[in-house]
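User: structure tokens for Organic solvent tolerance-like N-terminal domain-containing protein, please.
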Amino acid sequence: MHRHPVTHTWLLLLLCIFVVGVALPLAWALTSITAGDMVITSRLMTFENNIYVARGGLKATQKDTVLTAERGIYDRNLELVKAIDNVEVTQPGSVLTSDYLEAYVKEDRILAKGNPRLVRIVERESRDENGVLTKRKTRVILTCDEVEGFNKENRFLAKGNVHVIEVPYREAETEEEAKANEKEPLSDLVCETLELFSLEDKAIARNNVVIVTKTLRATGDKAIYLDRENRLIIVGHAHAYQTSRESPGAEEQVSELYANKIIYYPNEDRTIAVGDVRATVYPKGAKGPGDSKDQKERKKKKKKEAGDGEEGKAEEPAAGKPADQTARPDQATPRRRGTPPPLAERRSTPPEGLPPGDYTPIGDDAGEPGTIDATADE
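Assistant: Done. Predicted tokens:
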């Protein structure tokens, strides 16, 4: 019986297809292991001395948290997962990215290093001028040197060069649109350490705190933000500038505050100062009688009179002191941060950082301009 050679060719071809079809799924099969209640999977994983090394991508799932990275290591003895390169941790309402991350399985704790960035979507409620309740979503973006997450406590701790901005949240915005949106934040916070409590919607910033919004610039040693109460509390050498209007059509004015505690309500754009309060109001665009030309002449006259007065004082030694013991400007005692400057400094020119415009301190020339003293507690 004669057999056609083509038959053998087709049989070999079918056999090759079958072998390749079986081999491909095996080559790309995922390897899964468990670490406590965490499930770790990878396309390529090796095991030696109770240490798993994942080189074909890493994915770890624990409850509602998903961790992904390009590669990673799991030490079964220490119950420690190390994720390396393009690390991303996704939780409901937040995404954490970094170059390197350690996950401690027993403690249910993570530590992210290498350009960590935490993004949270927050929904806020506020009332408009008519008292109508409105809701809006914002994106809160945190960057720092390292961030630690305590999942059992629903708490994050950011350390080193902490910077937080809040921007409007827009559905389906592109990456370019998101970056452009971050250039004009609704609020900006800088500090050394920051604690975030997710369930309580509370944040505590510590050490060299600087807060900037559209109408407020505040500094202090510590700031506590209570989102549900729409309240920001600044303590420890609290100092703030706030831009406001007495009525919708009135000129803007800037208030400078020193107090033991400054409370700011963002949605209402309202500030309360408590304890040893000292305040100065600088009306923007305020002018005296006459036009701008008369105002310039008055400024020149005051400057000349001030110069003549200083020359006269320079000729006479300070009362009760010999001439060689007269205080010099370069011997001035340094002023501690957060304490009010001397009257002469505050009266001469408005402080730096105010919006552009002409400013005139309010108050009697015989006393301190626009100063309010109080010692009441909240």
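User: Anything notable?

Assistant: Helices lie at 5-27, 175-181, 292-315, 343-348.
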